[in-house]
Write a structure and sequence with these properties.
Elements: H1 4-33, H2 36-57, H3 63-80, H4 83-87, H5 89-96, H6 105-115, H7 119-130, H8 137-147, H9 153-160, H10 164-180, H11 190-212, E1 216-217, H12 223-239, H13 244-257, H14 283-298, H15 305-318, H16 327-340, H17 344-358, H18 360-368, H19 381-392, H20 396-409, E2 411-412, H21 413-428
Parallel strand pairs: 1-2
Helix pairs in contact: 1-2, 1-3, 1-7, 2-3, 5-6, 7-12, 8-10, 8-11, 9-10, 11-12, 11-13, 12-13, 13-14, 13-15, 14-15, 15-16, 16-17, 17-18, 18-19, 19-20, 20-21
């Protein structure tokens, strides 16, 4: 009998292996059963079997293959006892009798060639199904993290600060929706591919942004979520290396993630972009991001919204200080982005860039034009940006009101404390000179 310490070490190894192999196993099994819910169930059966056997027998030499084989057997046993087995006999009948050695070696090779398609193809099918536009964005995020990231329902719930039953219900409903709509387990083609690809990229970026700047809770960032999004982006870029927007999104996330070491103080307090110690930025991630951006730029056609945002991030990454930042180019890139993908949030970001390039009055004019935008009515960064611009124009009393309003709108405790501190600073700074040192735009 193995000692408890060895069992615990084996369980940790299984958890790490599952995190790596889950998507591959679920993708392969979903190829057989054409149902993500069933595929995940059989993959989970394989995980339970591993937890039962590996602590006693040791982790096998090829744990991914062990999990894959076990999950396939569960799926094939299920198909054998359902009408699906008959309807898919042409595709699956040979493999159902594999263990009974009824097939010739040649036929076995043919069956394997048909079913054991390139693992990348199965992953593509899986991510396009999990991010189907029939699901709500919240459900897409939860299901994608579950099947592509190998995260448990509890981990996803903690990441989004939601009750575990809420997340579990979202995942269950997402699977039921896909099954009821008979969504095919396939990569769409033609125009539908680009429509679905946009949904996939949106989900990955939503996951990244929730990690980059958490919408609620006690922590400003949840890096584990962003790490998952970057990992998914790398998978997708490896599978679709000629898609400019896939590369653009990966570049954007890599460069943004490079700032993580400098975005919080040792006490967990937020540090805004213009106050960060840029020597702490991860140069490897910046290089990887810029490489992905260069690949996107080398492809034919204009850059899309993600690639343009990556180009903006690259401008910051190239600058060794705030003063060396090419704000004029950033403002021009935001102009192009606003024309290609107009939105109030992009216009707000453009206002910050314009204020840095051409002065706070120019930025404030843009922000004031957004005050009646319905989509920004409860967006805390609108009054936050406006407050900063008012500070730079030496209008401190008005700025204090804006920062207090921004603090009332945010759900994040760290960000609320930062905004209230800035409001208090405005009170202490009445009569100070414009553009005083240490008061920076709330660029994140």
């Amino acid at each position: 009998m193995r000692d408890p310490a060895s069992n615990e070490a084996a369980c940790r190894s299984i958890e790490a292996i599952w995190h790596i192999e889950a998507a591959k196993v679920i993708g392969r099994v979903a190829r057989l059963v054409h149902d993500i819910g069933l595929a995940e169930e059989f993959a989970q059966d394989a995980l339970v079997a591993a937890l039962e056997h590996w602590p006693q027998t040791g982790v096998p030499d090829n744990p991914g293959a062990w999990l894959m084989t076990t999950a396939k057997r569960r799926a094939l046993d299920h198909l054998r006892h359902t009408q699906r087995a008959a309807s898919r006999a042409v595709d699956l009948g040979y493999e159902l009798d594999f263990r009974h050695a009824v097939l010739s070696d040649d036929l076995r090779e043919q069956v394997d060639a048909h079913l054991d398609d390139d693992i990348g193809d199965n992953l593509l099918r899986l991510i396009f199904t999990a991010c189907h536009p029939a699901l709500s964005p919240e459900s897409r995020c939860a299901l994608t993290l579950r099947v592509m990231g190998g995260l448990t329902t509890d981990e996803i719930a903690r990441a989004y600060l939601k009750p575990e039953p809420t997340i579990a219900q979202r995942i269950v409903r997402a699977k039921r929706t896909l099954a009821a709509a008979r969504v095919p387990f396939e990569v769409p083609r033609g125009t539908e591919l680009m429509q679905r690809l946009a949904s996939v990229l949106e989900v990955i970026y939503l996951i990244f942004n929730e990690g980059y700047a958490a919408t609620g809770g006690a922590d400003w960032m949840r890096p584990a979520l962003s790490d998952e999004a970057v990992r998914l982006g790398r998978v997708l870029a490896g599978l679709l290396p000629e898609e400019s927007e896939v590369l653009g999104l990966l570049a954007l996330m890599e460069i943004q993630a490079s700032r993580f070491p400098a975005r919080v103080s040792p006490c967990g307090e937020p540090i805004l972009l213009l106050d960060q110690d840029r020597t702490r930025w991860d140069r490897l991630l910046i290089r990887r991001g810029r490489d992905a951006l260069h690949k996107a730029e080398a492809l034919p056609g204009p850059l899309g919204p993600y690639a343009l945002q990556a180009a903006i991030a690259a401008c910051h990454a190239r600058a060794l200080s705030v003063e060396q930042t090419d704000w004029t180019r950033i403002a021009a890139l935001y102009d192009a982005l606003a024309q290609m993908a107009p939105s109030p949030v992009i216009s707000l970001n453009r206002a910050v860039a314009v204020s840095m390039a051409f002065g706070p009055a120019a930025g404030l004019e843009i922000v004031d034009g957004l005050l009646n935008e319905p989509g920004l009515r409860h967006y805390h960064l609108l009054p936050s940006v406006r407050g900063d611009l008012l500070v730079r124009l030496n209008r401190h009393a008005e700025a204090r009101t804006e920062f207090e309003r921004a603090a009332s709108l945010t759900q994040n405790a760290r960000e609320r404390a930062l905004l209230l501190a800035r409001a208090s600073h405005c009170h202490d700074s009445d009569g100070a000179k414009p553009d005083q040192p240490g008061v920076h735009a709330p660029w994140r």
